Structure formats: C-alpha cells, structure tokens
What we know:
Blueprint: H1 5-19, E1 24-28, E2 41-46, H2 54-68, E3 74-79, H3 87-95, E4 97-98
Parallel strand pairs: 2-3
Antiparallel strand pairs: 1-2, 1-4
Amino acid sequence: MRLTDYQIQAIRQLARRVGGDRSRVRVFGSRLDDTANGGDLDLMLELPEPVDNPALMAARMSALVSRVMFGRKVDVLLSAPNLMRLPIHDSAFKEGRLL
C-alpha cells in the first residue's frame, strides 16, 4: 500500500473526527498496488449509524485527507445503514484494506 505510516495515522484520526469514534476507514483502488505510481486515493468511510448529510460528510473527509496528502485528489465513498449499497461498495469491501 502506497501510504506512509504518518498518512495512515492521520487518515484514521480524520475518519474518527468526521465519522465518529466507531467509524472505520478502508483504502481501495490503485493505492493498494505497490508497483503503480501516482493516482488518487480512494477511501471508504464505514459508519455504523445513519448519515444525515452524506455529500457534506464525504466532501469534508476528502478535503481534510487531501491536505494530509499534499493536495492529492481523494475520493471518499460512504457506507452507512441508510445509504444505498452499490457495486463499488462490494469492490471496496472485497479488495480494500482497513486502516
């Protein structure tokens, strides 16, 4: 996985700040490939409770993590009980790695 220990710890802390203490964050996509270069960061924020404003939460998480990643583009997918589960969620759960 192409993340430093500092970045992993910062992303975990931001996930708890944005999603609460029981949230979890998973990396999926090209960042898991140690042989690749560049690319954005794909995260799935897993939330145990329903989300009132998912677009705002995803945007906030993306912006905060992007700062940690020196401006790199960060895509955030949310998983919560009240949100529709799409095929991308299945891929993230299957191939992704919890931080």
